[in-house]
Amino acid sequence: MADMEIRTIVAPLLKGHIILPNVAVAELLALTMPEPLKKAPSWILGELIWNGWQVPIISFEHMIDNTYGNVITSKARILIIKTLGESTQVNYIGLIIQGLPRLRKVTMQSLVEKPQKDLPDEVFSVVSIDELDAYIPELGDFTRRVEKAAYDN
């Protein structure tokens, strides 16, 4: 049986990368500072209006590990992703990334899982792909956490 390939986007973070299915990525934007949300946690930088949608802008690294903070570099961009939840409030999320994402075809053989203790619910796995360390988010839990933090205050 031939090895199945999945088209993905590998986007740089401050430390490591995030890997997403290509179909989950809607657009790459230049960095625009979002409007702050009242009572939102520090990993939510605010929200932007994008194509008529309210889009919360988040730091994934800060969300899963408070030691990162919200670092904005000169290479920062916003990657708009489609959510997989049944949410009526969060249909898109903007991720702060640090540079240009790359398209990669991924197979089970090209991913090497890096066993981790106590992964946050929003992280499905940590892998190595072509010698790059990358988070694979658990998009359902990720979406629910963003929605609750951004809009259930």
Offer a concise description of the structure.
The chain is mostly beta strands and 153 residues long.
Beta-strand residue percentage: 35-45%
Strand order of the largest sheet: 8-1-2-11-10-9
Got a strand count? 11
Average of per-residue pLDDT values: 88
Largest β sheet strand count, sense and barrel closure: 6 strands, mixed
Describe this structure in words.
There is one protein chain. With 153 residues, the chain is mainly beta. 12% of the residues lie in helices and 43% in strands. The protein is built from two helices and eleven strands. It has helices spanning 60-64, 139-151, and strands at residues 6-12, 17-21, 25-30, 44-50, 53-58, 76-82, 92-98, 102-106, 111-113, 123-129, 132-137. The strands form two sheets. The protein has a six-stranded mixed sheet. The longest helix is centred in the C-terminal third of the chain and has 13 residues, at 139-151. The radius of gyration is 15 Å and the shape is globular. It starts with 5 loop residues before the first strand and ends with a helix. The model has no long low-confidence stretch (mean pLDDT 88).
